Amino acid sequence: MIRSTFLLFIIFFGANANALQCVDDNLVWQKLIITKNAESSYQSAIEALSKAAATSTTGEAEFYQSAIEFRLGLEQESKVSMEKSTNKKYYLSSAFMGLAYELGVAGYSKSQKKANEYYSQFLTMASECSEGNAASFSSEEAAMLVAKLFGILPDLHNKNEPREKLLPSISCAKVLRKASFYVKKNKIEKAKKLLSESIGGKCDTPYDLFNANRFLGFVLYAEGKLALSIEAYLAAQLYRFEDGKNYIDGFYTVSQLYYVHGEYEKSIAQAKEYFVLKRELAPEQVILMATSYYELEQYNEALKYTLQGMQLAELIKQDIPKVWYELLWNIYFDSSDYNSAISTTRVMVQTYPEGKYQKRYAILCKKISDHKYCS
How would DSSP label each residue in 60-90? Predict the structure, then answer.
């Protein structure tokens, strides 16, 4: 994962006397907009950066303007802004140019020789800056920072893969945006067709294939094609990005889909994968596992996870839904643990004072007439 210190690196700086000023102190808001992906504020940020660039000599404003324009798909405008920043010798512009030539992206032809020249230039320029720890970052770390700011790399990457294999291509990004537009317009068939045709074509890097298949899974679910939706989500799981939230959450999504499809053992298997990867679980996620075990008539496991889910809800002060008590009661009743079923009925009557729960006493007392609640 790109280290959290990168955020501090681009927003807050400590001065070093007798060195060059490389950043503008009045651009904190615009930097936050980029790091927090605040797309709704992109246009106003561009206007502010353009105004700042007119009087600034650092080239920093043009650099961040280029980043926002690139994210908006304004590739030519982004390139012009980057050239202005480079001409003013802004040090991160050199890191961007190194990355662009190394990968052959953003309109630049692939050239490792030029990439190395720009990375070397970055290190020299960073060492001359008065701000913070710029010189302590390697050219690779700077390239990863730039890639994150421009949206060239996924937030979470697998270091075992060559860098170019983890790139989201511009062509696939356009496919995903267009598919998203179709979904918003309720043109599900068009979105499905576009994504299906693009997988392995315009979307062919691991990062692209992960996102395109995941999106296709969502589209197929919206279309009501549950089995095909599961297949698409499972295809996305083939492309793991280290500790990536979307990758991890995908297991819970597939677990839910398998449950709805009546494939309870597969639902449990996916949930277990999710439990291993997820650091903090929501109570309802644990209850899903319990419900699958109940459907399989594995009552001991169902009971274990039901109680865990309810305890977790109590721990975070979340109200326990009525349906969870229903599940608990059914587990006890179906496993012939009538004493526990009666105790649960009492809790349900006290928590939900509705007439129908009183009737359960009559049902249970026929089984064990000597229970204290049956007298």
Answer: HHHHHHHHHHHHTT-HHHHHHHHHHHHHTT-
Q: Are the C-beta atoms of residues 267 and 292 closer than 8 Å to each other?
A: yes
Distance CA 125, CA 122 (A): 5
SS3 131: strand
The answer to whether 144 touches 136, Cβ cutoff 8 Å, is no
Check: CB of residue 124 under 8 Å from CB of residue 135.
Answer: no
Query: Phi-psi bin for 131: left (phi > 0), alpha (psi -120 to 50), beta?
Result: beta
Reported as a single tens digit per residue, the pLDDT across 273-317 is 888 887 678 899 999 999 999 999 999 999 999 999 999 999 888
Cβ neighbours of residue 99 closer than 8 Å, sequence gap 6 or more: 105, 115, 143, 146, 147, 152
Q: What's the predicted TM-score (pTM) here?
A: 0.55
Whether residue 98 contacts residue 119, with contact meaning beta carbons closer than 8 Å, is answered with: yes
- C-alpha span between 278 and 271 (Å, rounded): 10
Question: Which token pair is 177?
Answer: 């945006």
- Fill in the DSSP letter of residue 140: H
